[in-house]
Amino acid sequence: MKDKLMVLDEQQKQTGVSRRAFLKTITGTAAGIGISQVFNPVLISAMEKALETHPVLWIQGQSCTGCSVSLLNSVDPSIADILLKVISLQFHPTIMAAEGGVAMENLFKIAEAYNGKFSLVVEGAIPVAADGKFCIVGEFNHQEMTMVDLVKDLGKKAGSVLAVGACAAYGGIPAAEGNVTGATGVMDFFKLYGIQTPVVNIPGCPPHPDWIVGSIAHLLTKGLPELDDDGRPVIFYGNNIHDNCPHVEEYDAGEMAMTLSDAKGCRMDLGCKGPDTYADCYKRKWNSGMNWCVDNAVCIGCVEPGFPDASSPFYEPA
Q: Considering the entire predicted model, what is its pTM?
């Protein structure tokens, strides 16, 4: 493995993209990746040992990059600590220093050097219509690369794949009714092309940063997490929103909210999808634990297969 690392370091020097330079760029421009609600120093120490032997490659298809933004919006610990002590993130189209052919060459060199020993993160849906031409992600060896090409190649070489966000997990908004791109999620894409690499779905629009980093950390330290029938980690998606909602007692008493401005009352009649949604938003919350959807609106079921069509409309005024 040391020989492989030396080769990789030399390759990175040749392409002008070293890990040190990458980290220097990231730490100067991003807000941070946080998992403070999930992990302790003992686990972080254990993950440090996996860094140089298990890179993470992050690619993007049909997406708004909202999942990446969510990841970067957490504030504690800093992104430098996460990249140095939790995730060896060696490719990310939105935030890395390199671009164009240099970045694509480095991506494939890393995948080849760590064949079967890296984790692939897919953000965004994969459009299979029109031979994948709806989503062209770059050029490699003077050939145009589509998202279909990229996921087929890297998906076979990866040791595990994380489908981050509703779009990568189940198709999401790009796969909604009326789309012409043939947008699909990673699991369905793998079935289509007979790819056997295990997939962990991290749905949400966007998913909580803890869900993303926590799942990667589990892969690094313990292997694949326990998954539910929809391919989601039970540790994050094992509990029903409605059963744990602060308004559940009001529901049991038959008290229903008439408008979103009502301080009390269950919001099911206003379109809340909590009864059909499984995630730990109610206790993990968002914005550094400040709030979550039901504090201000309704649950829209963004972690469930079929979103958004299956959960629309999101709000029904009384």
A: 0.82
Give, for all 318 residues of the chain, the pLDDT tens digit. Answer: 444 444 444 444 443 444 444 333 333 333 333 344 444 444 455 555 555 568 899 999 999 999 998 888 765 555 566 666 667 888 999 888 888 888 899 999 999 999 999 999 999 999 999 999 999 998 888 889 999 999 999 999 999 999 999 999 999 999 999 999 999 999 999 999 999 999 999 999 999 988 988 888 788 778 899 999 999 999 999 999 999 999 999 999 999 999 988 989 999 999 999 999 999 999 999 887 889 999 989 999 999 999 999 998 877 665
In the chain, list all ranges with CATH 4.10.480.10: 239-311
The residues annotated as belonging to the active site are 64, 67, 167, 205, 242, 245, 266, 272, 281, 293, 299, 302
Domain 2-234 is classified in which CATH homologous superfamily? NADH:ubiquinone oxidoreductase-like, 20kDa subunit (3.40.50.700)
Integer Cα distance of 72 and 74 in angstroms: 6
**With contact defined as beta carbons under 8 Å apart, do 154 and 59 qualify?**
yes
Give ∠ CA 53-57-60 in degrees, rounded to 5: 170
Phi first, then psi: give them for residue 168, nearest 5 degrees. Answer: -70, -35
The answer to whether the CB of 300 falls within 8 A of the CB of 311 is yes
Task: State the residue for tokens 């007979």.
Answer: 194
Report the CATH number of the 239-311 domain: 4.10.480.10
Q: Confirm if 251 and 288 have CB atoms less than 8 A apart.
A: no
